[in-house]
Amino acid sequence: MQSLSAKNIIAISGSLRAGSSNHAILNYLDKITPVGTNYSIYDGLAQIPHFDPGLENDNPPTAVKAFRKLIADADGVIICTPEYAFGVPGTLKNALDWTVSSGSLSEKPLALITASTGGENAHAALLLILGALNAKVTKETSILISFIRSKMDGDGNITDDAAVEGLTQVFNTFLALL
Ligand SMILES: Cc1cc2nc3c(=O)[nH]c(=O)nc-3n(C[C@H](O)[C@H](O)[C@H](O)COP(=O)(O)O)c2cc1C
Fold this sequence. Notes:
The protein has helices at about 20-30, 60-75, 90-95, 120-130, 160-175, and strands at about 5-15, 35-40, 75-80, 110-115, 140-145. By secondary structure, it is of the alpha/beta class. Strands 2-1-3-4-5 form a five-stranded parallel beta sheet, with helices on both faces.
């Protein structure tokens, strides 16, 4: 019998910037989340300590424990991130490194959105990283949106029709996997 309990989505922005376009995208997805599905934007990325393989097993730092549990308990995870210096933002990569041995993302439905000026390198690197973490991410649940700043207005509304359509499609495919 199918479970009647509400599905939980955790959304993570790879940008810590106030007024971030990636955060605005996550706010847009919140607005189109169907009634009966819980959607939360994780805001603790900056509090996760630097990855230390010597600390991770017996007694990981509190913020790490909480992050791992949040991910493990979620039915699906959304990552929405810019690219910095041709790579994955350090804070995001750091958080993902803590999930390698915990396996928190294994078999987890995941939508990957890279929204950046270019973003090709971070997008490709994340697909590789998420593959190593055994997250359930596919071509249909990932999207690269380049020139993101020119596709938004000053209030964080997405003004580009193709971007809205692409995001909605990825989100709906992701929702169907939960
Ligand atoms: C230090 C720094 C390095 C950046 N490097 C890249 C880059 O290598 N590739 C890219 O596509 N965008 C790069 N950008 C531009 C970001 O993609 C752009 O600022 C984006 O809007 C950031 O996302 P946010 O609006 O969510 O903060 C860089 C921005 C900063 C501040």
